[in-house]
């Protein structure tokens, strides 16, 4: 099942309906970027704007496969942007709470100055493909839904953790499925946690909040992604993401706040 | 009037009430960090949690002095965090839409690893104090509500723009008013825009969205702040903030997405 179908939303009646598909999970719980993409599709439909520009999700409860509802509420419909809030609701509990502004990226223009560049990596075929192992439950099932190739220096599975909380890699959908701004939302939260490369006890780091800025529509081809953490402290860590398209343009930026394992 | 009084919220009845005070404005419009602090106080009161942990604001309309209402709605009350959404509503229009998670920073703990340090700056007395000029309207009135000293290399007013979209400086409240996590929210949005130091047409850059993570309760004394921009492109720019306390600890991190002047 393609990402497009797995994140499709029926917006014919309010609340909108969608379904968490099988296989987008990490040990049974749907990936956060995947849930974000479902929510964003519903909000964009309500806003009648094609693209998320900035969207924030607070993660409330794990999502399991099955039906969900989304109830987008227009906060303000402006000239260039429409701001929307929504709850992505599972069968029993709210899963994520969302707030975002939507617009048409093709209508944006302005001066350019970029003081960064895509991560320098060996070609995809020399990077480490993460393939799910159903028996171990790791790499998680959702790695089967994307084609993700980790930089060999960051491939904690095959070697040792690098010691740096950094994850770099290539990303695309299988079967030549095109990447769009909703796919970029998935990209901001589908890499292994940066803490897996730190010399700290390895554990899942639950996301409190994730904000993604979609800066441009990606051109076809591999994405290059870079996730890094500078501040692990006080029970929390941030994870900063950059997503670059095949032309070397930044297409998305993200930051999440996650909880670290309690001492 | 102290920051504490200027951001006080009456939470005795729903919706809560507050007032935008005089003098916290930039050419008549209330500063975004100041509005965020009012909203966050209301949300923390509703959550019965002392501190914002992660909070996002989407800016809808400029705020003018006068009464406002805030209608915090609990999204989820969890074990460690309570998630709340709210609209800060002015006399005629909604001003900002908010989503945040609140908790008690004193209850958070975990491993520490920090790969950054506070900005290196001359002492406050050798930095450039920004003092409002009511005739020019610049520096803006709100600079009279804080004691803000810009790094001489970034003080675009006295010298020339540095060419780098970077703003570093010291910050405290006047009259020894203590700094708290709500003051940190102000800190994330009260420096001059980084674009004032870029070799680009100078213009106000309206904030679409700002997210702040409060990482620790600040110790007394000067804050050191650093705001930088790496990606000016496609009509948008991000501004990344770090706020460090007098002990050299990161106490807040922020990112905003702003619109650049259209070509």
Automatic annotation (TrEMBL), chains A, B:
SUPFAM superfamilies: Thioesterase/thiol ester dehydrase-isomerase. InterPro entries: ACOT8-like_C (IPR049450), Acyl-CoA_hotdog (IPR042171), HotDog_dom_sf (IPR029069), Sec_Metab_Biosynth-Assoc (IPR052389), TesB_ACOT8-like_N (IPR049449). Residues 124-259 form the Acyl-CoA thioesterase-like C-terminal domain. It holds the Pfam family 4HBT_3. Gene3D superfamilies: Acyl-CoA thioesterase, double hotdog domain (2.40.160.210). Residues 21-102 form the Acyl-CoA thioesterase-like N-terminal HotDog domain. This is Thioesterase family protein. It comes from Congregibacter brevis.
